[in-house]
Amino acid sequence: MTDILDDGGIASPARAQIGADVRARLERNPMVSRIDSDKIDIFGRQAFLSREECAALRAMIDAGAKPSTLFSGSANADYRTSHSCNLDPFDDLVRAVSDRICALTGLPAHHGETLQGQRYTAGQEYKVHCDYFPVNADYWQRMRTCGGQRSWTTMIYLSNVDRGGETHFPHCEFMVPPVEGMLLAWDNMDRSGAPNVMSLHAARPVELGTKYVVTKWFREHRWQR
Ligand SMILES: O=C(O)CCC(=O)C(=O)O
Ligand SMILES: [Fe+2]
Q: Which ligand is nearest to the CA of 157?
């Protein structure tokens, strides 16, 4: 019975183990630095992608980007004003980047959603949200059968931004400014494997320049689209 009720909103030893495994692997990596916070497990890795790789991914985003939607599919026009697209998983570069993210984190490729590209021009933003699924949302019933909860988020900045565009974690009192080629990885679960409300974050409005990112969200189980 408890298994049936474990719907992603409560502590879970399995999700806690995913968090611990990734954390241990990132902490062993001399190229990775932990952002100092006792509220969230979050890490940065500079120069994860080369300038050429960032440029190629930016071009793919420019070619494919459409106005972003929210996961719920709701048309809340001012909440996520960027443009985005799913990148072709069979493209050689997209495949290489995804493989490298899996090698860095140790997370299995088949738990990863499609790499998503996103572009913000001046004035565009993604307001505060959590990447994990709220279990009281109607779409959760679908999500729990196609991979379950989102555990880690990995995101790579593909451009520097002249002003604005920081990734802000308001409960944790820090902001990460975009740096071309830098990867950011955080656990959306807390140490008990329950959704971590401290992982709430926003993409602050770009003030000057254009911000590009790719994001890959990892599910707790095999992801089936
Ligand atoms: O663009 C950012 O800095 C954050 C993006 C984000 O939160 C997301 O795509 O889930
Ligand atoms: Fe997010």
A: 1
